[in-house]
């Protein structure tokens, strides 16, 4: 038994007294005692206030186990039934100058509860009360915010729930508009300054609210210990309807503290402070979180963007089979792709017809593996999810005005990129180079989570494997050929490759140069290619320009080329050297932009962009089988570094970081919109109209997938 005078070892250590007021409810009280004995450090003082209930079972049991419990139990019997408030005030008086942890008798505590409450109470010098998270506690209820429940999810034990919450918590200790009385640490300075509970609330309900408001008025704070979860049954000791008592006491609170109702309303609905963040983190610890993946790009058309999206979906599902992923697709999704996704038990396919009319909020976090094309896409993602992560493959079009019809289109692209990277909650960059590029441009704010998720090179087979097929343009070509692959943007440096062809011809090489890739409307290098050809008309006989090819034609080209020449100046990642080597074809590549980062250091590369020097390099590789094989071996070996599984792990970590960080407040701009029932025709707020005026939908410039 502890010394009620407050003297002794516990007092010298400054440890609080645990106070449990008890009135009947023996089953709940016994569970409370059991949990206190199991999870409270040895030597802690526990004061039980016996409020003269008729049922003595809990006290009889306590009397038989107290001496072996490791805790210093004292039972103080009231002279008559006085009610909860008087019982608490009696405990405050008996504990003298000690802090108090007030625990309702229908509460079950978990591991480390006492120590964590103590640490929260001493995290700052202006704290009056500390409240624990619980299943049944109005604005501190979890897993569902503002929704008390008397059951833990999935049949979970209290110990497991408490451990999960503690392990995931960031110990944010958010400020509360009021303490919640189920499990409440009260500092002695708060009691000395504000006085004890007001006996006006003698039957219970409202006493901790009144006390909390007096503390706020004094300048002290009520905080949440977001790393402590306790189970609360709720109303176990009343046994009668409490509606009348609650209403009467609420009127008293309203009359005394004009700010109380509004402050609680704000706390219960706000999205951007530490309180909703702490509650979300606890919710995720207890029931997990919902993940959506924007796969609306998937359809009959297939390019690097579609490959990236599909491979990432499969890798995420395979890497984390316990997590359910919902992929949001358009009506253009092929039956073949749908069937492939549905073979994974943890993938759900959800079709959305029109993102402009989709206002159904349904995910904790949504991930779009590739770049966003319009402000409307961003607004849609912000509407359907609490957190948004996007992939940023490169900043090529952000930097290059020649890829746009006019300056307005380029400016629009730059503004869109800026708005997206500032408006989301996480960014997955294609390489460290792209991440640094964004930082250099001031596009990546410090509060927004980011990570590098390289392209994987170990693609899972999607659909029927293509059978390599020779392009008809090469049907009559028997000479060896050098392949240059990529849309004819200037940064692909196809005109330089034509110059290399001229040097190769001067050095006696009789093969052909094959250029593969579409011709863009703006920013094409065609004129520069033509200029080189005009200066050496014989080159035309050794140049084959194919345009776009299918996957089976691409396989044939990569497998049959004598060499792949990759003089690209700007890349977000740089797939082509690896794809060539995986087909057994050597590569001569530049090391500019991200290529310097991803290519193995031991292979030779384009350094000075001298056509003569590069022609020599190409001849050396084509004439030296051992050199060609060593280049392929190095690239193939290094390609094992870049796996979809590794990227999926980074994406999952990025999701965790985003979910554990404050929500990006730019949602207020992007996600706001009219009620979908009134969207006839679509309306827009002033803010949205301004945003649309300066950032209309655009046809984007080049993508790294080309």
Walkthrough of the structure:
The chain has three domains: 9-287, Spore Coat Polysaccharide Biosynthesis Protein SpsA, Chain A; 291-456 and 648-694, Glycogen Phosphorylase B (Rossmann fold, 3-Layer(aba) Sandwich); 472-638, Rossmann fold. Helix 17 (432-440) links the parallel strand 15 (426-429) and strand 16. The strands form three sheets. Strands 1, 2, 3, 4, 5, 6, 7, 8 and 9 form a nine-stranded mixed β-sheet that branches. A seven-stranded parallel β-sheet has the order 12-11-10-13-14-15-16. It has a five-stranded parallel β-sheet with strand order 19-18-17-20-21, with helices on both faces. The chain is α/β, with parallel strands linked by helices and 706 residues long. Helix 18 (494-506) packs across helix 23. It is built from 27 helices and 21 strands.
> What percent of residues are in strands?
15-25%
The domain tally reads 3
Task: Name the structural class.
Answer: alpha/beta
Let me know the largest β-sheet: 9 strands, mixed
* CATH topology name of the largest domain: Spore Coat Polysaccharide Biosynthesis Protein SpsA, Chain A
Give the proportion of residues in helices.
25-40%
In total, how many beta strands? 21
Spatial gap, N to C terminus: 77 Å
Architecture of the largest domain, according to CATH? Alpha-Beta Complex
Specify the CATH class of the largest domain.
Alpha Beta
Overall, the morphology is elongated
Radius of gyration: 34 Å
Uncertain stretches of 5 or more adjacent residues: 5-12, 236-240, 674-706
What's the CATH superfamily of the largest domain, by name?
A: Spore Coat Polysaccharide Biosynthesis Protein SpsA, Chain A
Figure out the total of helices.
27
Mean pLDDT: 90
